[in-house]
Amino acid sequence: MDATIADPMLAEMGKNLKEAMKMLEDSQRRTEEENGKKLVSGDIPGPLQGSGQDMVSILQLVQNLMHGDEDEEPQSPRIQNIGEQGHMALLGHSLGAYISTLDKEKLRKLTTRILSDTTLWLCRIFRYENGCAYFHEEEREGLAKICRLAIHSRYEDFVVDGFNVLYNKKPVIYLSAAARPGLGQYLCNQLGLPFPCLCRVPCNTMFGSQHQMDVAFLEKLIKDDVERGRLPLLLVANAGTAAVGHTDKIGRLKELCEQYGIWLHVEGVNLATLALGYVSSSVLAATKCDSMTMTPGPWLGLPAVPAVTLYKHDDPALTLVAGLTSNKPADKLRALPLWLSLQYLGLDGIVERIKHPGQCGETLSLQKIQKLPRHSGAHL
Questions:
Q1: Are 291 and 369 in contact (CB under 8 A)?
Q2: In whole angstroms, what is the distance from residue 50 CA to residue 217 CA?
Q3: How far apart (Å, rounded) are the C-alpha atoms in residues 213 and 256?
Q4: In-domain check, residue 344
Q5: Which segments carry the region annotation Disordered (predicted)?
Q6: What is the tens place of the pLDDT at every residue in 261-276?
Q7: How many domains does the chain have?
Q8: Distance (Å, rounded) from C-alpha 109 to C-alpha 98?
Q9: Which terminus of the chain is more solvent-facing, meaning fewer CB atoms within 10 Å of its CB: N or C?
Q10: Residue 156 falls within a domain, yes or no?
């Protein structure tokens, strides 16, 4: 029995998206006709004059813009071959616009189901039990909202007295010296905090990795801040630094954060390995942290998929104030492309896509080793 889509608009949407993507991917260069087009003079911009453009013309315009500026020589498009799973993610954005036209009750039920399903699947796949999820386009946005949640949690009078309570007991956010550039400045700008609220923790230089946070030095910094009347608020740990992919001693950092009541947030590409059957003890310790930010789009090769911040907190009022939860259907529909893609890939497909880059790296490393000159008496 063949599976059919009962909703004609939904079927037409999928068909149009497929045709549009084929048109963009198959086109190789601008046509002479399009190169010779000139905007119509007048008060109204050329493309808006008359009765409008048809879909083919608009898609052709997009294709031309993708090739380069009008004054440049035509170039072949560099559209990535995203495959069927990529089309599924892109379909989620069109489908989200269609779903938003449903009546309020149906829309509420559907968006709640999509959000709860995606949250449960991600928590199970990445071993973060009983967590909540916040989906966001800007990768750093989740951490900014987590910082706001930590402020509301530690400063009970913040809602009433605002930044006066922060002035009397300044919060401190700890970042590794190996953290990605601009992260600290972004957090201060988003939270309205002065730069002295940031504390950059050096990495080990005498013992261990030069890209791993110095835990002993961090503890000294925390003690100094407490003695000066400051409030150690949040620590950002790395599970895969941008430079070399090294992971901090997350288990030890978790113990330190529990001792001083500090919120522990973890981010990094190595969090992807939590979906595998084997994982390092340091990365596994991230499952016990207060929050983590993941980027399933790059990990799974999915375009236009949001980043996800998983977190644990018991007070829904504070998460609402911090902006981590919302009653708006549009906010809940951010999870739709990922909801579709995860179902399409299945657990086996997700694991395979995470394992594949590592297997390629091992193969390339082995090939380089085999090309090394052999010395007498040495065997590889």
A1: no
A2: 69
A3: 13
A4: no
A5: 25-44
A6: 999 999 999 999 999 9
A7: 1
A8: 15
A9: N
A10: yes
CATH number at residue 252: 3.40.640.10
Distance CA 26, CA 336 (A): 27
Q: What is the separation, in whole angstroms, between the first and last Cα of the chain?
A: 56
Decide if 4 is inside a domain.
Answer: no
Please check whether residue 25 is in contact with residue 66, taking contact to mean a CB–CB distance below 8 angstroms. no
pLDDT in tens, 32-65: 445 445 444 456 666 666 666 676 776 677 667 6
The dihedral through the CA atoms of 312, 316, 322, 327 has a sign that is: positive
Give the up-direction half-sphere exposure of residue 215: CA atoms within 13 A in the CB hemisphere.
Answer: 16
What are the contacts of 79-83 at 24+ separation with CB within 8 A? 79/24, 79/25, 80/303, 81/25, 82/301, 82/303, 83/301
Residue 7 covered by a domain: no
Q: What is the pLDDT of residues 14-25, one digit of tens each?
A: 777 677 666 656
Q: HEC states along the chain?
A: CCCCCCCHHHHHHHHHHHHHHHHHHHCCCCCHHHHCCCCCCCCCCHHHCCCCCCHHHHHHHHHHHHHCCCCCCCCCCCCCCCHHHHHHHHHHHHHHHHHCCCCHHHHHHHHHHHHHHHHHHHHHHCCCCCCEEEEECCCCHHHHHHHHHHHHHHCCCHHHHCHHHHHHCCEEEEEECCCCCCHHHHHHHHHCCCHHHEEEECECCCCCCCCCECHHHHHHHHHHHHHCCCEEEEEEEEECCCCCCCECCHHHHHHHHHHHCCEEEEECHHHHHHHCCCCCHHHHHHHHCCEEEECHHHHHCCCCCCEEEEECCCCHHHHHHHCCCCCCHHHHHHHHHHHHHHHHHHHHHHHHHHHHHHHHHHHHHHHHHHHCCCCCCCCC
C-alpha 283: how far from its chain's center?
18
CA angle 64, 73, 303 (to 5 degrees): 40
Domain that holds residue 184: 140-294
